[in-house]
Amino acid sequence: MTDIYDVTIIGGGPAGLFSAFYSGLRGMRTKIIEYQPKLGGKVLLYPEKMIWDAGGQPPVLGELFAKQLVNQGMTFQPTVCTNEKVDLIEKDENQNFLLTTHNGNKHYSKSVIVAIGGGIIQPRPLEVEAADRFVGKTLHYTVNDLRQFRDKVVMISGGGDSAVDWAAELLYIAKQVIIVSRRDKLSAHEALVKRLESSSAKILLNSRICGLAGNEGMIDQVKLENIHSGDMMMEEVDHLVVNHGYNRDSSFELAENLSLEMKDDYFYVGNAQGYTSEDGIFAAGDILTYDGKINLLVGAFQDAVNAVNSAKTYLEPSAEKVAMVSSHNKAFDEQNKKLIREMLR
Ligand SMILES: Cc1cc2nc3c(=O)[nH]c(=O)nc-3n(C[C@H](O)[C@H](O)[C@H](O)COP(=O)(O)OP(=O)(O)OC[C@H]3O[C@@H](n4cnc5c(N)ncnc54)[C@H](O)[C@@H]3O)c2cc1C
What we know:
The protein has two domains: 4-121 and 247-344, FAD/NAD(P)-binding domain (3-Layer(bba) Sandwich), CATH 3.50.50.60; 125-244, FAD/NAD(P)-binding domain. The chain contains six helices and 23 strands. It has helices at 14-25, 62-73, 161-170, 190-197, 297-315, 333-344; strands spanning 4-10, 30-33, 50-51, 60-61, 79-81, 86-91, 97-101, 106-114, 120-123, 139-140, 153-157, 176-180, 202-204, 207-215, 218-226, 232-236, 239-242, 246-249, 253-254, 262-263, 267-269, 281-283, 288-289. β7 and β8 (106-114) form a beta hairpin. α1 runs parallel beside α2 (62-73) and α1 (14-25) packs across α5. The chain is globular. The model has no long low-confidence stretch (mean pLDDT 94). Bound molecules: flavin-adenine dinucleotide (FAD). Flavin-adenine dinucleotide binds next to α1 and α5. Flavin-adenine dinucleotide (FAD) binds next to α1 and α5.
């Protein structure tokens, strides 16, 4: 038999996870569909970055923050389907949504929250022969553990914000930081670039990596080419962090009778209440755009609350437009009693 959920959230990043928490709070049967094997969204790309601006939260590493997001998202035990990419959204004759994923699975829902952020994100690989031999050991696309770089020579390839961020952070940890960029200047926050320029970091501009030498996953040397003169040079390196940006796939198909207003081929234009141009489809997080939209965690959380409240009133027009504050919610009665007893002990 077809199992029809009240709301199905596409994307298990901050917006999707907070939507799942909030829809549970509002008593809606909820499902999350996420393409990656793990929930957490883009935050999983910066596990070792300190997050300072999440609001009411002490500075926290991305890894822990993602874990906390997932725990909160699971409060009301939504159904979670990972490793599934939503490819097609349709409506059936009863006005229920039918979502088909890349592996042919079908999901039925009365409403949908699109929380796909920047889409499915994969780091752009280093285009150098046999680079795969080093991935996970000394060639990194995300930084999972800063301790491995202690007193090592670390090369960072890329000249954008993330690359410069990492170079600045590694100055305090690595023996030597080398930053390599094809551009003729680093294009990141001015203050950070100045800090790097006046530090011990070696900055190699107009250069690209054209070869890696080493054995059993351990890089010994990186071969570089000056993109103007063609001159070659070798650098002795222990670890290589590649930050060449990301490939994004934010595509899915809509049935002919459905439409979502889009901007720049990937933002869904909606409003601050999460409404999109299509009845019953709401959006939250980085995929949504409207005047005043903030593409940060705090923005994703606010969007999530609004999208859930809009989905709730779409399903039950007489429902409160806004949920009560969480401490007043019956769902937490037992836990509140327990926590207060523990505090008073
Ligand atoms: C390097 C970096 C550092 C950052 N630092 C900060 C910071 O310090 N503070 C801050 O507030 N913000 C920061 N941000 C921004 C913040 O991470 C984003 O605003 C936030 O992750 C947006 O959440 P989201 O849920 O909208 O999207 P995402 O986090 O992108 O999550 C979307 C999820 O949807 C999934 N998905 C996409 N398409 C499909 C599909 N068709 N089917 C199924 N699943 C799909 C994706 O796999 C992904 O898991 C940073 C971002 C980056 C890239």
